[in-house]
Amino acid sequence: MNQQATEPSQNEEEGIRLDEVIDFLSDHWKKAAIGAVAGAVLGVGGWSVLANYKAESVLINNGAVSFMSWRALQKNLPILASQIVAAKQLKPGEEAQYGRLSSAVWWQKNVVPTYSLTKADTKDLATISKDLQESGGTNILNLVVTATGSSKEAAEANVDVSTRFIKEGLAYLSIKNLINGYESQVLNVDADLQKKILDAEVELKFMRERAKNLEALRQRFPQNAAVGSQQIVDLKDSSAKYMPISTQLVAINTDINNTVESLQRMRDQMAQMTVLKGFVAQALPLVAKDTNGLVLADALLKVEADMRQQLPPEDTNGLQMLNGIEATLVGFRTSFSKSLDTDLVPQVSRPGPVAPAAGGLLGGAALVFLMALSRKVLSRLKRRTAQVQGL
């Protein structure tokens, strides 16, 4: 009987009754209210100190950046930013933002391209051909750039640094790739052309000797020279030697003329490579020195203008090469200065204090109740331990 009486008593100790809950809340609601107020004050205080301003700027893309070029250049922009930081080529106050620009994670979160077709649009236009969806859906309309700062002015300055770096960095990487391509072209084409020119000159020597021999045969055998009609003949064919001498002479002279024309074209290309080689030699130090693509474009255009003045007017090969270089550089400068620009001032916002205050309010009250409940549980455990030891 005593054991049975003890078990209900223990169950009552272990259980939580409704009246106990009510008593617990009535005993601690004042403390909880004080904790809630303190939490709200701390939340608002933390918001006023830690909450940053957020500035958003939109770079309008008018064909300066394509989907494929953005995917490639996006990986190189953080590397370029880290190189600029390491070289200490920064204006005062830009170090912190360039440190953020050196992180690939920052670019994924803070630079978001807007495409002409979203995923939802693609589903709605399922009846359109896949090629049409891909060609139109990958067009980049704009780049949404965001940056934070402790004040409105700091956020605006950081987003301005970011957008400026995007334009200057994209221009620099594009021009750097162009100069590297020119350098590879000079090295590869120059050696290849020299080989082709030498081979053509050797072949031309043999063809002229053969034409000379055929002319001697025509004078020796005049009865074999006259023919009623000319035929197309391949001199490499084994049966070509049995054709009339006049036909063979026409064919060999045609090949000689074609080879002479080809040689002249290759020599013209060699002359163009000489001009390109001189341009690359002056461009490489500038590329290594200045990472501002827009400034670099102006410097390279000055190099091109100086080389143009030194060329004689009759050097059409050199002028043709310089015209191509000028057109490409002007295109880059225009694309990244005019075709990638912001039309509106940055929009700056800051999260309000309501959410931090509400979080602090609930957190403070919950913390007070949790501490009181912990003390009550510990007290009950001590009392139960004392009862067990008394038995």
Structure, described:
The protein is of the alpha+beta class and 391 residues long. It has a domain at 53-172. Helix content is 73%, strand content 7%. The chain has helices spanning 2-14, 18-50, 67-87, 95-101, 104-110, 119-124, 130-137, 152-220, 245-289, 293-310, 316-337, 354-390, and strands at residues 53-61, 111-115, 140-149, 340-341, 347-349. Strands 1, 2, 3, 4 and 5 form a five-stranded antiparallel sheet that branches. Helix 9 (245-289) crosses helix 10 and helix 10 packs antiparallel against helix 11 (316-337). The longest helix has 69 residues, at 152-220.
Summarize the structure.
By secondary structure, this protein is of the alpha+beta class. It has twelve helices and five strands.
Strand and helix layout:
Layout: H1 2-14, H2 18-50, E1 53-61, H3 67-87, H4 95-101, H5 104-110, E2 111-115, H6 119-124, H7 130-137, E3 140-149, H8 152-220, H9 245-289, H10 293-310, H11 316-337, E4 340-341, E5 347-349, H12 354-390
Antiparallel strand pairs: 1-3, 1-4, 1-5, 2-3
